[in-house]
Amino acid sequence: MNIAIFTPGKNPYSETFIQAHKNYLKGKVFYYYGGKGRVQLEGASTLVSKWELLRLRMLRKIKKYSFSYINEQAVLTSLKTNAIDVVLVEYGTHAHKILPILKSAKLPIVVHFHGYDASVHAAVKACNDYKEVFQFATKIVAVSTKMEQMLLDLGCPKEKLVYNVYGPQPEFETVTPTFAKKQFIGIGRFTDKKAPYYTIMAFKEVAHKHPDARLLLAGDGALMNMCANLVKQYQLESQVQFLGVITPDVYRSLLAESLAFVQHSITASNGDMEGTPLAVLEASVAGLPVIATKHAGIPDVIIDGKTGLLCDEHDVQGMANNMLQLINDVEYAKKLGALGKQHILNNYNMQRHINALQAILLEVISS
């Protein structure tokens, strides 16, 4: 099976789920990245030969086609040359942008939604509520039950829609937490939907009662400076540390020594929502209890009171109480973490995710 994966950009550090598709799907994967008129193929200097490129340039000039014509035709030629059997498009918004290619390719198309693309009001509206995407796609993949319902509400045919939550990288299964420190850890982009400021506000109460407690926040983003200012205002500089972007190896080592993973996800004012946060799955399969919110796909994978502790969105006091409950009862934290690890291994491991996606691709080819 020759699989073409289309993504908006190349290898962004936060999109490890796309890298998992590229690395673990069985068959030969051709990785096309870039926006409309700028699509490139990883590992290839050009999509077509220089003579074919010259022919396309001349044809565009004679026929007065748009500037994106050359790239679109080059992509179509590349798909034929590489004998592509099926196309997997990452993000509904990207599928909408490259619709001319998808229509002309006349190949089975699987569109994988991930989060903002199904929830941000402006993005959905700009894509005309995905009417054409739903029409031309053979299958649509949603990563949470909440997203599944949102796509149905937009008009996605039920028979095309498939629920397939992510799987954490297998390396996280090898983590053995020691619960050695009064340390909470969170990782992710500093964006509205992850509301890192709420996590800091919740930790404030913990810090006052446990001066030796620590909060580590990894990642970067637009809200970083605001969060740093909040830490200064609360005089928590000695207890809250911003790590910036860290490697998976460093993240796993920090998980191994921490008490719990924390993330206060919310629905942003523009509608932006999580899919199912991969960091939540990674922390849980590493054996740490997850302290988070009842948001998007989080309740799908974290069982409140059994594998983690969940509060409502914006409930800072509720999150603070959950953090205090675990810092005051490490044995309970260990119990939640152990049950969480087994739950993810049994139901949401990477092999299950890839096998399900592989089955979808094979199904659309055979049909």
Textual characterization of the structure:
The chain has 367 residues and is of the alpha/beta class. The chain has a seven-stranded mixed beta sheet, with helices on both faces. A six-stranded parallel beta sheet has the order 10-9-8-11-12-13, sandwiched between helices. The mean pLDDT is 95.
Topology record:
Blueprint: E1 2-7, H1 16-24, E2 28-33, E3 40-41, H2 50-63, H3 68-81, E4 86-90, H4 92-97, H5 99-105, E5 109-112, H6 116-119, H7 121-126, H8 131-136, E6 139-142, H9 145-154, E7 161-163, E8 183-187, H10 196-209, E9 214-218, H11 224-233, E10 240-244, H12 248-257, E11 260-262, H13 278-285, E12 290-293, H14 298-301, E13 308-311, H15 316-327, H16 330-347, H17 350-366
Parallel strand pairs: 1-2, 1-4, 4-5, 5-6, 6-7, 8-9, 8-11, 9-10, 11-12, 12-13
Antiparallel strand pairs: 2-3
Helix pairs in contact: 2-3, 3-5, 10-11, 10-15
Q: Describe the largest sheet.
A: 7 strands, mixed
**Widest sheet: strand ordering:** 3-2-1-4-5-6-7
Let me know the average pLDDT: 95
Q: Determine Rg (CA atoms, Å).
A: 22 Å
Task: Please tell me what the overall shape is.
Answer: elongated
**Cα distance, first to last residue?**
14 Å
Task: Say how many strands there are.
Answer: 13
- Count of helices? 17
Beta-strand portion reads 15-25%
Brief overview:
The protein is an alpha/beta fold and 367 residues long. The protein has helices at 16-24, 50-63, 68-81, 92-97, 99-105, 116-119, 121-126, 131-136, 145-154, 196-209, 224-233, 248-257, 278-285, 298-301, 316-327, 330-347, 350-366; strands at residues 2-7, 28-33, 40-41, 86-90, 109-112, 139-142, 161-163, 183-187, 214-218, 240-244, 260-262, 290-293, 308-311. The chain starts with a strand and ends with a helix.
